[in-house]
Amino acid sequence: MAEAMIDRVSRDVLANLISSAKAGRIRSFEFEDLLLDLNLGSEDPVVAAFKATLHDIVDEQDGFLTSVLDHPESRARVARWISFLKSDIEYRWPATRLPVGFLDTYRPTWFDKLLGKDVKIQHEIDLICQSGDYRVWPYFNMAECGSGQECS
After folding, report:
1. Of the N and C termini of the chain, which has fewer Cβ atoms inside 10 Å?
2. Contact predicate 10/46, CB 8 Å
3. 36 in a domain, yes or no?
């Protein structure tokens, strides 16, 4: 069995970046610059998954990113993200370009519907969500997540 690829440096940078954005210590444009500068050559698949997820919520309007990450409904989700990034657990979800951290919030736009992308995107979301326990993403299942508050 191949050894899991854990990019400790990139995971730590991501955890700190998310914590700083959540606390409002960095602005959206700074966040986006730091996210883009993150190790592009990382072989840890969670790095690409988080880059897609976080890039999707960056907005030009200052304060938007913090409001998303620190929203009451997002706090457990974001705490779970940080907890996973600080762990050495292998990321086991299938690769996708979709913002996997927010798949449960996908709503097709009129443009998605016009191009017929909504059905394809929803099909990909369904496949991803069926591969593990999406309620505890980026952990793969409840056993990996443990009994912390962010996992309940």
Report:
1. N
2. no
3. yes
Q: Does residue 2 fall inside a structural domain?
A: no
CA atoms within 13 A on the CB side of 70: 12
* Nearest residue to 90 via CA among 48, 131, 45: 45
Residue 3 inside a domain? The answer is no
Rounded CA gap, 92 and 113, in Å? Answer: 30
Asked if residue 91 lies in contact with residue 10, where contact means CB atoms within 8 angstroms, the answer is no
Q: By the 8 A CB rule, do 119 and 76 touch?
A: no
Domain count for the chain: 1
Of 73, 52, 66, 90, the closest CA to residue 18 belongs to 66
Query: Is the CB of residue 30 less than 8 Å from the CB of residue 66?
Result: no
Going by C-alpha positions, the residue among 45, 51, 136 that lies closest to residue 91 is 45
For 58, the domain range is 8-151
What is the per-residue pLDDT across 111-135, written as a single tens digit (0 to 9) for each? Answer: 888 998 889 989 988 999 899 999 8
> Does any domain span residue 48?
yes
Reported residue count of the chain is: 152
Helices (H) and strands (E) in the chain, counts: 8, 0
